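Progress report, Aim 2. The chain analyzed during this reporting quarter is listed below.
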Amino acid sequence: MHTLKPTSFNLETPPASQPVEAQAGPRAETPVWMQRLFVIVYVVFCIELGIVLVTLPWSPWWIHNHLLAHWSSVRHFSRLGFVRGAISGIGFLDLWLGVSEAVHYRDRR
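Predicted structure tokens for the chain:
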């Protein structure tokens, strides 16, 4: 009869009936086309989000936000210059991440 051992031992060592190679199996590499598609989607997402975060705090939509009409203290806080600058800074960081990923991309083979 097979008895259970402590959990950490069960996770660290495979059962004796199966060899280690059979459990791990060959690691499947991601196809190159999927890597490129992921990078394209990531770069486009980062650039679009960065543009929105850089420009939105300085637009009229930010000042006339009807979602914050009931919370005057949050509305006042969101109109402060350093809050707008911080959000724009996050947008510039996001733009930088997208462009950096596009420039430094290499296929993994």
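The chain has a mean pLDDT of 82. The CA atoms of residues 86 and 104 lie 27 Å apart. These observations will guide the mutagenesis work planned for the next reporting period.
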